[in-house]
Amino acid sequence: MKLNIGSGFRKMDGYINVDNFEECKPDVLMNLEETPWSFESNSVSEITAIHVLEHLGEQRDVFFNIIKEIYRVLRNDGIIKISVPFYMHPTFYTDPTHVRSFTSGTFKMLSKKVNQDWMDRNVNATMLAFMLDVDFDLINVSYKYDPVWDNKLKNNEISQEEIIQAAQEKWGVVQELNVILRACKEV
After folding, report:
1. DSSP 40
2. Are 39 and 3 in contact (CB under 8 A)?
3. 2 neighbors 44 (Cβ within 8 angstroms)
4. Rounded to whole angstroms, how far apart are CA atoms 121 and 63?
5. In the 8-state DSSP scheme, what is residue 136?
6. Contact, 3 vs 78, CB < 8 A?
7. Which of 55, 58, 93, 134 is the most buried (most CB within 10 A)?
8. Cβ–Cβ < 8 Å for 144, 175
9. By C-alpha distance, which of 105, 92, 99, 43 is closest to 69?
10. Numbers of helices and strands, H then E, in the chain
11. Which helix (H) or strand (E) holds 97?
12. What confidence tens digit (pLDDT) does each residue in 68-120 have?
């Protein structure tokens, strides 16, 4: 089973499209902030969450419960593909329903291996994977650039190295953060 959570009008073939708004005509009408979800544990091979997580869990505990539900329903080695607006881009701040921002580091916090490394090195970071009892490997991180910057890159006006540097120093370079996580569960 594959889930497309927060599907909106972007339905995906081969997925159960889940949304809270009837107008979107989802396969499953469900408020993702109300847990537990109606899906069985370890029953999902893949979840897509495209521009939904930034809208969920204004209260920290609600967000934590959503992360725990994602982990619960994913089978071992199941993946979640996440796209969120980048916190240093106007699109994040434009929508008043955005309640949470993310960086790639946010998702690293969901790995027990990373948390254990931090503990071994006495790093002062939140051990979120252990706090929530979830364990995800961060498989891939990629960025979608703002169209202005993407055109500069495509037209060879700026190199890959230069756009990476600009993204670290300037607002509005990166528009979207995309990550793929894999659930790690004892079998």
Report:
1. P
2. yes
3. yes
4. 28
5. E
6. no
7. 134
8. yes
9. 43
10. 7, 7
11. none
12. 999 999 999 999 999 999 999 999 999 999 999 999 999 999 999 999 999 99
Residue-wise pLDDT for 26-35, tens only, equals 999 999 999 9
Q: What is the pTM of this model?
A: 0.94
* DSSP track, 116-152: HHHHHTT--S--HHHHHT--EEEEEEEEEEPHHHHHH
Distance between alpha carbon 58 and the CA centroid of its chain, in Å? 15
Alpha carbon separation from 61 to 58, 82, 96 (Å, rounded):
9, 20, 20
Taking CA atoms, 84 is separated from 27, 99, 110, in Å, by 23, 12, 16
How far is it, in rounded angstroms, from Cα 28 to Cα 21?
Answer: 10
Q: Which residue has the tokens 């109606």?
A: 38
- Give the integer Cα–Cα distance in Å for 70 and 52: 13
